[in-house]
Amino acid sequence: MLKKMHIPLVVVLLLLPITLWANHSTLRNDTFNTLPDSQGGAFRTDSRIMWGHEEAQREGRYFSAFIFSGGIHPISSTLTSPAFATEAFVPERVNQVSTAITYAALANDVCWTIISSDNNGITGWTRVGSTSYYFQCQGNTTPSRPTLPSNSAFLMEILIASSAITTVTDISARSPISSSAVPINAYNVITQGGAACNGIHDDTPQITASIASGRSIIIPPGVTCIVTGVTKTGLSNFTIMGGGTLKLKAETHARVLSISSSSDFSILGVTFDGNKANQTGATDRINDSLAVIDSKRFLLQGNTFKNGYSGTCLLVSNSVAPTGAVNQETNAIIAHNIVKDCGNPGSAAFADGIFAWCDNCEVHDNTILNVTDTGIAMDYSKNIRVHHNVIRGDPALVSAQRPVQGIAILGVTNAIVESNTVEWTQIGITVTLSGNPPVAPYVSAYVTMAYNTVLNTASTLYSGDAISAADPSTNFVRATSNTVVTATRGVVVTPNDSVISHNSVFSTVGRGIYVGGGRSKALNNLVVDAGGDGIYVQDDGIEVRSNTIINASNGIDCATKLARVSGNFFSGVTTPLANATKINTYDDPIILPNAIAYKVKNIDGSIRDILLADTSDRTRIELNGLQLVISQPSTALTVGAAGGAAALPATPTGYIRWLDISNNSWKIPYYAE
């Protein structure tokens, strides 16, 4: 009986894989390459090679060659560059370790640099040793981009002057979007739209018509379409993509592309070139590379915006300034874009990297390099998040020619600014009212700046603050867990009800932390090497607790204001508590259990609340980190009519005695209310 049960089971197991293989054989999967002969001795080796190429060729159908990281070196005083690394997909993955390039160039020349997976050499190109880097120098100073070899990606255009590398321009593609990886109804602006896109011919009519077709359009990788400014209105459900370039025609003074009153669209992997070298005198601030006006529900991702003469490289705005009655529900994502070289340093042509009036928007993982105004400016907005962006100026420029601000929050309600890196700007991250007419409700409120890194902020024109909310009309600001290295001032927050906590501030010319505004707090901060005060207290009613201050002239400067200061650590500080003997009082008295309010007459004759005493014989009250001690029982005190601004009687009700940090005994008269 056991044998009879066993036999059919074996039959089933033998037939099952045959049935499955038979079904699989009906599926078609054509390879690019011929399968190796399984009878050959090199079958295993040939198979590995074949499938490696097969995978790369399949990726090439969907993705164009692009640079994932690195791919650019700085300038040099010689013909040898600093070493640099690159990871690229051409479409094969090429991971080139850090290597220097010595350009075989004339004293004045133009060179082009690529990375390639070709190991056999490329005609017309010089290979750098056995690396993946190749270059071609043209023997003149008139740039003419060469044809890109297959299995390669452009890296840089190099300008040689007096046998030195004086200018390095990043010409790499940073987006892997290919013309094949587009929606089925994608419309090719060249093959279907009739555009030449040869970098010479004016393609404005063809590009305009292609976008107006209402289809998703493709600008193929590697092409440059010259336009005099394309403007379209009232579109929806479309995509512009492809890796190609829209370049503004010389002396046009217009926006490269303007889209208005549109919705539900994406712009992916396109380069917008403002051609600023050929837009002379354009100081009218309309040379935006891309402008999106009165639109909603859109994605701008993987694009490059560059060479804007003035205005904004990427503008998101409304045609009419919003009011409290206007709902500008933008709902947009601006991510993974590169914005660079906008504006002309030292001239009147100022340019923002990204400027947006944008409700319910997220701006993240963008790289902004060498703009002359603000890296990312969020204006007239609410419910935004700005995170993981990099904004960097040029350290070779004098401070007055670097970006004015890294990130500016202007008249924004409910904003989170976190995990950004800002370097070599005049001001790091700032929160203030709108740069447009400050009409309510366009003051900023409920703003959190957290986990940002701000490096090397300095200015001869502006404050040089690394983290700043210096406008007292702003409400409810939180600056927490930020890192500041080298700034004129570190963290400056002046609105009421603010919190400055867990920040690390290193090496400031002036004050490390400047805290102002009633009921604000400075807690658990680290300040090292402050040229001025470690922490400066601007207003009454501020709590300064558990901070560490190392190497500063004054640890905490109370500046004649009453602050609750306790639990702070000082090292290398000349005066831990500066101006402690000039402290007045709180604007509002401290409320203690079963307490009675009293007044004190200040040195200038004014009358202010000072503190409250309960009914115990001796009441200890912390005042600026000190213990205030009532020297006689307070049960005999009564509430009278001497409070407020009324004249004080000749004889006080009693005296409060207390000791300061130097054991000086103070005798303060008080008067019953």
Task: Explain the layout of strands and helices.
Layout lengths: L1 H23 L18 H20 L3 E5 L13 E6 L3 E7 L9 E8 L9 E2 L5 E5 L14 E10 L2 E7 L16 E2 L9 E5 L1 H9 L4 E2 L5 E4 L2 E4 L2 E6 L3 E4 L8 E4 L2 E6 L2 E3 L16 E4 L2 E6 L2 E3 L4 E7 L14 E4 L2 E5 L8 E6 L4 E4 L2 E5 L2 E6 L2 E6 L2 E3 L12 E6 L2 E6 L2 E3 L3 E6 L12 E6 L2 E5 L7 E5 L5 E6 L2 E5 L1 E5 L5 E3 L2 E5 L4 E3 L5 E3 L2 E5 L4 E3 L4 E4 L2 E10 L5 E4 L2 E10 L17 E6 L5 E7 L6 E4 L2 E5 L23 E6 L5 E8 L1
Parallel strand pairs: 9-11, 10-12, 11-14, 12-15, 13-16, 14-17, 15-18, 16-19, 17-20, 18-21, 19-22, 20-23, 21-24, 22-25, 23-26, 24-27, 25-28, 26-29, 27-30, 28-31, 29-32, 30-33, 31-34, 32-35, 33-36, 34-37, 35-38, 36-39, 37-40, 38-41, 39-42, 40-43, 41-44, 42-45, 43-46, 44-47, 45-48, 46-48, 47-49, 48-50
Antiparallel strand pairs: 1-2, 2-3, 4-6, 4-7, 5-6, 7-8, 51-52, 51-56, 53-54, 54-55, 55-56
